[in-house]
Amino acid sequence: MAWTAIPDKSTGDLMDETWYDAHFKANMEYLLGGRPQASVCRTGASDYTTTSASWLNVDAANLALTLAIASGRAFVIATFRLESDNTAGSEAEVDIAADGARAGGAHGLVRLPQNQQEWATIMALFPALSPGNRTFRLQYRNVTGGAMATIKNDGFPITLLGWEV
User: Fold this and answer.
1) Which residues are registered as beta bridge partners of 57?
2) Could you give the CA distance from residue 102 to residue 164 in angstroms, rounded to a whole number?
3) Which domains can be identified in the chain, with CATH numbers?
4) pLDDT 10s per residue in the chain (165 long)?
5) Smallest Cα–Cα separation from 18: which of 31, 35, 4?
6) Contact 165, 73 (CB under 8 A)
7) Please, are residues 117 and 81 in contact by the beta-carbon 8 Å criterion?
8) Contact call for residues 144 and 87 (beta carbons, < 8 A)
9) What Å distances lie between residue 141 and 1, 32, 84, 109, CA to CA?
10) Gap between the Cα atoms of 25 and 16, Å rounded
11) Residue 119 gets which letter from DSSP?
12) Measured in whole angstroms, how far is the alpha carbon of residue 124 from the centre of its chain?
C-alpha cells in the first residue's frame, strides 16, 4: 500500500464512497501501518575492523536495509559495540549512509577516542530522499590511518532498524 495523492476538487464535485476509499481511507491506513519498515540484527563469529581513514561500509551484504520510500523521508537507528585501539590519536567514527550519502558531518554520528570501548546507539533522519528504493548501511573509519576501528560482532549484536516517516 502506498500514499495516494489527493486530487484537487472544485465546488460541486462529488466525493462518493469510491473516492473516499481510494483517497482518504487508504491514506489513513498507510499512515497508521502501511509505511515500509525493515530491520536486521547480526551476531557473527568475528568482529569488523578497519584501519582506513576513509569511510567504508561495515558489511555491505549483511548490514543493509532497503526501503521503498514514497514520502522522501526515512528514520534509521543503529546499535553496536565500538572500539578504538590504543594508537596515539586513534579515534573510531561511525555513521549511517543512505545510498552512500552519510547522515553525519565530517566525523559521522559517533566518535570514540583512543583506547575506548563503548555501546553506541546512533539515529539519523533522512529528510530529503528521492522516492523509490533506498538502501541504508552502517559505515565506519579510524581518523588516524593505520590505527584500528572495530565494531564488535563476536557475540555482540549489531542492529539496524529503519522506517519511512
Assistant:
1) 139
2) 17
3) 37-164 (2.60.120.40)
4) 667 788 888 888 878 888 878 877 887 877 777 778 899 999 988 999 999 999 999 998 999 999 999 889 999 999 999 999 999 889 999 999 999 999 999 999 999 999 999 999 999 999 999 999 999 999 999 998 889 999 999 889 999 999 998
5) 4
6) yes
7) yes
8) yes
9) 38, 38, 10, 12
10) 12
11) E
12) 6
**What is the 3-state composition of the chain as percent helix, strand, coil, each rounded to the nearest 5?**
10, 45, 40
Look at the block and give the residue holding cell 576513509: 54
Q: Check if the beta carbon of residue 126 is closer than 8 Å to that of residue 103.
A: yes
Distance between CA 43 and CA 126 in Å, rounded? Answer: 26
Which residue type, as a one-letter code, is found at position 38? A
φ/ψ of 23, rounded to 5, equals -110, -35
